[in-house]
Write a structure and sequence with these properties.
alpha/beta, seven-stranded mixed sheet, 12 helices, single chain, about 350 residues
Length: about 350
């Protein structure tokens, strides 16, 4: 899949002048899927110089990447394997009465639903996601746990949560409220609109829990290299230099306060990565490397990139993932608020 995407990228680089500036062909923008006319009105993408065209190509590459549903679903499964301890601990920190009604939006392939069935007492869960393929996979996972009576599923858009008022005791939203330009893959430019819908469908006294993958340390022994990679656009894809500070996910408490939620709290949960890694864990770590840094090469020195490729090469017995002493971690930060509205 990635090789296919790189072929597209090579073709695009051959066809487009390096300093195209404001003359980005409209036909190219229209042909790039979700990258649309908004590019022409976005100063970040239409500034003159090499920087703007590299970002346009990156956006097109991202669209190609997410269109490969099978690859993406496997990546969700693998990263879920690695993040499971953090997510489960986040769930354990929430107190729900038996039989609570929960909305998991977006539910992805349903791994969080699987864990909710174990962490909460007899929950009644609605899984909500835009991708039908994700919903079908989630249904299969639920069926394997013989929990069909506890779960229902809806295909829909996060920007249109068409549920009745006061429907849920908790809305769970993990990695589903990344705010910023939609042409960069973000769900909304104003997260408060979606949060207001969540408040409406949550019962008075109910909980809204919003989680984000917040950080990681996955290149032990190479802090300088990891810091350089983490500073690239590839690693911070949902924001750019022009993104308003208040759209950063760590500003979620302000979003929650604006929508009237009370008792707002934030907690960060750690998932440790400890060698020797299992084959699936190695595949998961490799997936993280690709997800975070696959397009960082253009922003770092050749020497740094060569070193990164060497220490992460899965076929090299001396690489980091193959080291029995490997140690790393990733974190999820959860923000919770209570709906105190009487509706």
């Amino acid at each position: 899949m990635l090789k296919k995407a790189m072929i597209y990228l090579s073709i695009l680089e051959a066809l487009i002048p390096a300093n195209i500036g404001n003359d980005i062909p409209e036909a190219l923008i229209r042909s790039s899927g979700s990258l649309n006319q908004k590019f022409l009105n976005n100063p970040y993408f239409c500034q003159k110089g090499d920087y703007c065209i590299s970002d346009l190509l990156y956006g097109i590459l991202f669209c190609i990447y997410i269109m490969d549903e099978t690859y993406y679903m496997r990546a969700l499964e693998l990263t879920g394997l690695l993040s499971e301890p953090a997510i489960r601990n986040a769930m354990k920190s929430i107190s729900l009465k038996e039989g609570s009604k929960i909305l998991d939006a977006p539910c992805g392939i349903g791994n969080h639903i699987e864990w909710m069935l174990e962490e909460f007492k007899n929950p009644q869960i609605t899984g909500f996601d835009l991708a039908e393929a994700h919903i079908e996979e989630a249904k299969k996972r639920v069926s394997k746990k013989n929990a069909d009576d506890n779960c229902s599923f809806v295909v829909g858009d996060m920007n249109q949560l068409e549920f009745g008022d006061n429907s849920f005791d908790m809305v769970w939203c993990s990695d589903g409220l990344w705010a910023g330009p939609k042409e960069m893959g973000c769900i909304s430019e104003d997260p408060c609109d979606i949060l207001e819908s969540m408040v409406r469908i949550t019962k008075p006294g109910g909980i809204i829990a919003v989680l984000f993958w917040s950080t990681q340390k996955i290149l032990p022994g190479y802090p300088w290299l990891e810091a350089q990679l983490n500073a690239t656009q590839s690693a911070i894809m949902s924001v750019n230099p022009g993104t308003a500070p208040e759209l950063h996910f760590m500003c979620t408490p302000a979003w929650m306060r604006k929508t009237g939620l009370k008792n707002i709290q934030s907690h960060t949960f750690v998932a440790d990565l400890q060698g020797p890694l299992s084959p699936e864990q190695k595949e998961g770590v490799a997936s993280m490397f690709e997800m975070l840094y696959s397009q960082s090469e253009q922003e770092v020195s050749e020497e740094l990139w060569a070193n990164f490729k060497k220490i992460t090469n899965p076929d090299d017995e001396n690489s980091l993932p193959n080291n029995e002493n490997y140690a790393g971690f990733l974190t999820y930060t959860m923000f919770t608020g209570i709906n105190k509205n009487s509706q």
